[in-house]
Amino acid sequence: MSSSTPVTYGGWQSERSGFMGRLSGVGFALVVGGCVLLLTPINLGSWTAAFVCVPPAAVLFALAFGRVLGLSADEWILLAVRHQINVATRRNIFQSGAFAPRSKTTGRQPMDLPGVLARLRFLEAPDGLGGTLGVSHDPVAHTYTAVARITFPGLALIDSDRQTARVAAWAGFLRGFCTEDSPIVRIAVHQRCLPDDGAALRSWTDRHLAADAPKEAVAALTELMEGAGPAATTRETYLSVTLSAPKARLAIKGAGGGQVGAAAVLVRELHAMHSALSSASLQVVEWLAPRALAQVVRTAYDPEAQLMLATRNAAAQAPDWQGLEPGVAPELAGPAHAETDWGTYRHDGAWTVSYQVRTWPQADVYATFLQPLLRPRQNARRSLSIVYEPIGPRRARQDLAREKAKRESARKLRAKTGQDESADELLEAQKARAQDVARASGQGVVRLTAVLAVTVTDLGELETACAELQADAAASGLELRRMWGAQDVGFAAAALPLGQGLPDRRIGF
Questions:
Q1: Furthest CA-CA distance within the chain
Q2: Quick one: which H or E segment has residue 102?
């Protein structure tokens, strides 16, 4: 075992964006309105006007600058109004299944997903190795996403030197996409922890059970599997890679153009990253075919379908199997019914609450600091998605220079007005300088976000499961924010490995 000191990690910075500084467009309008109200009695020279104008001005400033759970008052109002409009027009309710319309040309039900996923389509493309690859196509964002099921050896039970080497290899993998001409615009790691249904164990036992086995032994084995199988938990880990069609325009044109050319370019990029994934100790079990990708989506929406699908997939391994092929048809990937509430998302007999990681650890942490988030729980499923957006060198230099200029201007303004500089501001300035030095030395810069979801099939267990998740997040040094008014969007980002979750960068003045 190595005796070297374990390496720690830190330096995450929150992204600052808004119409003016940290103010949104509505917040800026509220500030302007408050200033007009304050100037009105001065211009009129009337105390009566002051008594009339000052109270509403104070209310406008409170709405603009007040913060509750990380959001300003005007943002809460916009969320509430949008949610109430959706409820009044029943846009928060989604129905599919038997209610979905059938295509007039094929007679089949089209792929039907709710909310922000309604525009996605699952395409089928050759993977270059004789198989098929499922590609999630977003025609609005012009992106193509492939999803792989992966395994990894973990970090908890190895020495610090190998921990550092694996983390550095993963950093090198991400750095490889921080180039100006990289067509890969998003990489996401998704992991979910769920109770083990025991279907694979039962299927293997049925195939290998001797015909003359004693009845008492068979009964004891069956009882043991029924008791121990469902008590176990399993983890599924997925890696999604998203290609931008506009960035790969010339390559797509050279590959034939259209969706066929885009899929060919995406497959070429996947083959090129194979060695980098191996260096990071990540083993690709399979790049998901359309039916396998649809099954991952389906089991997230309907946890009760996990047992049935796992049993059928295990039985399909038998040489004489005559039933359906493994997986789910893409048109059946979505839920039959889904409903978005203010703080929860109900889908096919399950309830999910989604959270955004609002603040990363302020202190340096070890490589295993996220481990408590996916502790096995018998009463709930947990999902974690970490979404990375690589930034090219030119844009990274501009963004970091802009952030540094903002901080320097704020420091000089405070110094002129006689205000003391807080320790938090000093620490942020040091992080910004260290990040700029690392960029200049050849390191990559990425935007990232993390979203979590907890899913239960018993509504009475939901608040307990949420409390346990928040406690484990606090143990990891994370500050979570419940995604009030946007639970369907949070579910799409946190519970599904489709590369959702990072909005476009908004640059403030």
A1: 104
A2: none
